[in-house]
Amino acid sequence: MIVCVPAYQICTSLVTVHALSMTQALIVVLLGNAISLAPMVLQGHAGVKYGISFPVHARAVYGHRGSHVATFLRGSVACGWFGIQTYVGGMALYQLVDAVVPTLNQAILASTTPDVMGLAADKFASLFAFWLVQVFIVVRGMGAIQILERVSAPVLGVLCTLLLCWAANAASTATGQPAIEALKHVSKPLAPEIFIKQLGPTVTAFVGFWATLALNISDFTRLATSHRASFVGQGLGLPIFSVAFATMAIGVTACTVSAFGTAIADPVALVGRVASGSNSNITAAVLSLIGLMVATLSTNIAANVVAPANALSNAFPNAFSTFAKSGMLVCSLGIASMPWKWADTSAMITWLLGYSVILAPVLGIMLVDYFIVNGRSIDVDELYVATPKSRYFYWNGFHVSAILCTLLATLVNVPGLLHALGVLNEIPTILLKSFEFSWFTGVGFGALLYWFVKVIDFKGFGAYQWRKTIYT
Asked: Is the pTM of this model over 0.85?
């Protein structure tokens, strides 16, 4: 899941948009991914111990019906991500077709309407074809997804190495100097005081990138054989491979300055440049495009279909009795969001900070409930008893205290989000700074509010003790 186009774009935006040096950018990547590791390991504990998925775990915190609040918040962000990644994969396929059979795209344009849903017909055809490939895998269930993950990992490692070697050779050929000199074209180091100011929002964005998976990580850790296996898998994979991937992405971008005279931060656009022009390299372009599509497939399905599909099955078990049915709806919603109209590299940081506003409080509340309030103890049988006598039914199936804490912790960062979207022109500095650290402030406020309600003997509306006085 580490190797994907959005991760590549976020890494390169550190040097092309935020003007960090390569060393400073790698510091941000390392900090962001190391910090993300903690909530992933903690949130995944219940999955390993009790073998429960995220929607089921959410019942213990939000109630049998209230759990849909948490799962649909997570699912809505996943649908957005699915649309973004499908668009990326579709454009990679478009570039591949254009490089190998350019007349096909021309024929599509000539035989149909100029555009479909605001996208050129030839590009939409590639997008739809890539979408169908994902649907083909999804309808075959979790087994097919696990096979895809195992196969894609080594393939992506080799292709990333080849891409870096090609970029280094292109830069060296263009300048007549060693490729290492290309790194000098990356932004010069920012002054320490400016770098520190940039550190907050950029690190938060990287943590936010993993905020989605951190929340529903138990969907995957429930399949782990032990807590040690879960920790080692995440501990080795996240910080180490993330830094290695970021090094490759930034290195390739630096080489594009020497090879093409401008920094190309979008890998799809880069491969399109490789496939065209007087110095085109069709072989390198085809291999790179195949790598982009494999990376997008493996990440998109595992990270952005599983969570919302489980949420739908949890909320509507009769209508979505299988993963294939719920997965099909998720795939349809993702493409219906039309990401080509709103998603681009320049808006990526705002997107990451923005959805952290709604997901971070849920994570903070669930961690406090599991580790502090209940001491890592869950009555699994009660999670499947949706009656008023169930321990986790609370008030009509809703744990109102948890829901109110989620709402209040979310509202803290709404002004900052509206300011980033251009809806509000001016807001207090403290709210602006809170949004720049939206994941941290969201987790913190959610955790503190819930801790106050549950631990300081505040028997709030919807608390378990209050519920017992009604039903017993």
From this structure: no
